[in-house]
From TrEMBL, chain A:
Keyword Transmembrane: yes
Residues that span the membrane, as ranges: 15-36
Name recorded for this polypeptide: TolB
UniProt keyword list: Membrane, Transmembrane, Transmembrane helix
Keyword Transmembrane helix attributed: yes
Automatic annotation (TrEMBL), chain B:
Protein's recorded name: MFS family permease
One of the Pfam families matching this protein, by short name: MFS_1
GO molecular-function terms, A-Z: transmembrane transporter activity
Gene Ontology, cellular component aspect: plasma membrane
Cellular compartments annotated: Cell membrane
Superkingdom per UniProt: Bacteria
Bilayer-crossing regions: 35-54, 149-169, 175-192, 213-235, 255-276, 288-321, 373-394
Keyword Transmembrane helix attributed: yes
Species the sequence originates in: Streptosporangium saharense
Amino acid sequence: MTQPAPRGRDRRDRIVTVVAVLVALVAVGYVTLSVLRTGATGAEGDVELPEGRQLVFRSLRPSPTFGHLAVLPADDLRRERVVLPTRCERTAASPAGGLCLRQTRDPLQPFAATLLDERLRPSGEAPVNGIPSRARVSEDGRYYATTTFVTGHSYLSDGFSTETVIGRVGGDPVGDVERFTFLLNGRPNENVDRNVWGVTFVPGGERFFATVATQDRRYLVEGDIGRRTLTALRENAECPSLSPDGGHLVYKKRTGLNTDVWRFHVLDLATGAETPLAETRSVDDQAAWLDDGHVMYAVPKGGAGGRAADVWVVPLGAGAPRLLVQDADSPTVRSPAPGGASR
Amino acid sequence: MYVSVRDIPRGAPVPRVVVVLGLVSLVTDISSEMVTAILPLFATLALGLTPLAYGMLDGLYQGATVLVRLLGGFFADRLRRPKLVAGAGYALGAAAKLMLLPVAGAGALSAAVAVDRAGKGLRTAPRDLLIATAAPRDRLGRSFGVHRALDATGALLGPVVAFGLLALAPGDFDMVFVVSFCAAVLGVLLFLQRVPERTPVPDRPVSPRDVVALLRIGGFLRLLCACAVLSAATIGDGFLYLVLLNGESVTTRWFPLLFVGTSLVYLALAVPFGRLSDRHGRNRVFTAGYGLLLCAYLTAILVGGFLGAVLCLTFLGAYYAATDGVLPAAATPMLPAELTATGISVVQAAVAGGRALGAVAFGAVWTVTEGAAAVWIFAAALTAALLTAVPMITRARDPRTESR
């Protein structure tokens, strides 16, 4: 330096060095703690799943098993949840198996889909592009669908899009649903800004419902895997979910002006009548059916670094929404074949 | 530290303060880029925001930083304490990382991002003033180049560190925020300890009227206008990467690597281009940088496949190397010493404002036309901007901007 070093300088140097070392130690210590915490998994090996209808979800209890797959008997939700070793960001289950979208340790492929067998154990892997948003599996377990946000790197916040892929278990993948022919008013629509999200499968066939967005409008569409088509049914309906009896669709309907404010509505597929549900909060989730008369969804509640949520349920008819499962999200119900594979 | 400016032979190292400032930027950029890299993940996965909402939040503050940048420059000059103002900026950046820990919603997240951006805006101009003061006049381009190369290295390492930590403990965003905070504190300590404050020269304080007087400096005004015109014709890296994606030159899987490629070229060329600018004229290298950007546009649409992507990223990285550090180096010699930080912040604000405008305009064009057509339109706009800017700043040689 140009000026002569004052005497107190050495002392100050030493103090700053000590502080710097302490700060570095804090960082190292915190990382070590965090790694040890996540390293500890819950149940190991084979886990006894509850009998009968099961509610499968992601457990968000503040514990080392935060984010792990968990199961409760759908008819007795006060029982203690069974926590599985698999960690997911989104999950969905059917009698034949399930799907878990999870974070990987590969920075180039940060997310992957793990297929689950009928006892919800990992049985296969499929790559996934982007940040997981929705997951669904078909009733017979033949198909699964993933919706992700393809934001790429943070420098790309200028543009984002969703990617929705349908996979066939043990067969050729069906691929990116965006490439299906989109029929709007009976005519193929060629808009390039098309985005597809929120698939729900129709049991026993190759049909599904989903959302298609183009030119700032969002359509409820009926998809056909065999014919590779998406047919627009009505406007302003996102993330549909088909009831177990196939009679109703529940979806998010935009009620705010140009903002992300939604309200769940139910469509009677036979009559075409649309009814708002009693839940008045704006919830950004693909709802799922607890049974033919009740719809459930996750409501974020902050805490745990903003990652905590509860699952709520609302009846189709009269009745207020109520808390169904605390510290949980991504709920789906499955009914394993009686006396069958889940045993 | 150097003894005499005159005695330094060609190829001699830059002043130590410049290297220290570069290291401070390196550490600080690791800290802030680790957060920036995982913030979309945190916002969508943990907070449940839609990427659109996050994108809007991000865009909102790009505009706000322009104003803070100008304030940072002005106060550094007015208080004659660039170290104080820059130090406050670094400290704000560290505080923002701490604010992320209890975040539970869009409101708190946007507050933390706002503080972080304010810190970044505040420190940029006073830090560049510290570099400009320390560097010998004939070595300005090179000194800024060294600083920018170190800075870019930090920006490159940040996401690597963040994703590496997330791989160790998937989903533990808090841990990444804590590490980022610690890195930011280390940056602040290094800055406080190793960067000397410029001894204040007793003089009449700078007033806003003096800032207006800057515009009467012909060479500076021409450089400012050229900056605004050129940067308004830029597409924005994000969109350029999307063009490559749409042209099927790359798949989404390789998306993060596009940024890495650009940064590598940038940090490799920052010093050589800085030296080139010292020798052949800083305004020339600066405008040539936009010529390189034009090449990036054209390769993105004309050359397909992997080769197209590589060429495009090389040109894009070279564009950053030829403009980012060269601009303050070009502006400094034209500015009165007591208004250097203000002047640097004004040209940088012009670039930032121009880029924001360009990004919005390109977004609008992009939605009404197909990808390639939108790039053609911007290639034409950039050509027009170059034809306007080149005679403005490279013909009339201002003796003060050239070292020969």
